[in-house]
Amino acid sequence: MQADDDSRPDGADAAARAGGAKTPQGSQSRERILQAALELIGERGYSATSVDALCKRAGIMKTALYWHFGSKEGLLAALLERVSQDWTDEIERRVGAEGPPLARLDHALASLRELVEQRPRHLRLVLSVLLERGESDPQTRDTVRRIYDRLSASIVQTFEDTIGQPLPDLDLVAHALLSLQQAAALRYLADPERADLERFFSFTRRTVILLIVDRMREAGLVPPDAIAGGN
Q1: CATH number of the domain at 11-70, please?
Q2: Which has the closest alpha carbon to 80: 142, 135, 19, 29?
Q3: What does pTM read for this prediction?
């Protein structure tokens, strides 16, 4: 397969791209490219997805991709940032409403489940890019790390807002929650018809409650013999 031209425009061209992307036509073109990349890289992997294939799927000229993103790597970075922003926006939207602690936890879990069921391409993209490029590409590792750090920070903030104060090791609780979500996503991607997400996320809910109560016990906010309720 012929290597793609990955040259980057100079600063003046980059500034022109930024201005062009603000026009309606430019915004639509950029969105088509991002959507095509989400579909193809998730399906085929990064290396097996050529710029020609991306442009054909998006229905644009190759120059448009370089105009908006500078290179194939630039497109990947923009796509990962978009996925990260979509995830955190969804979680924050769901848990931003006032309500009792368990209701807010349920909102957070519902948003994570929705990512598994309704946006599997997002999860497949991140997993495939990390497996394919993470070992050899520090920039990719850093970008994926920042995605999960941003998600974790959003979840921790939700916990703290609900409880009313910081607790020790809430970042580990958030990482446990995201790990369980990733396990659900892998199961769903492998066999969506047999993946019992209702049972899986009910177990996740119970696990997170137990972990939070344990952290509250550690901080002296609940009696040492308190047991987390599951309802």
Answers
A1: 1.10.10.60
A2: 142
A3: 0.73
The pair of structure tokens assigned to 212 is 């939070």
- What kind of architecture, by CATH, is found in domain 76-218? Orthogonal Bundle (1.10)
Nearest to 154 by CA among 167, 171, 169, 135: 171
Structure tokens at 179: 């790990």
DSSP code for 4: P
Rounded (5°) CA angle 144-146-151: 100
- Copy the structure tokens of residue 121: 């391409």
* 67-97: pLDDT as tens digits: 999 999 899 989 988 888 887 787 777 766 5
CA angle (14, 20, 23) in 5-degree steps: 155
Question: How far, in Å, CA of 109 to CA of 177, rounded?
Answer: 9
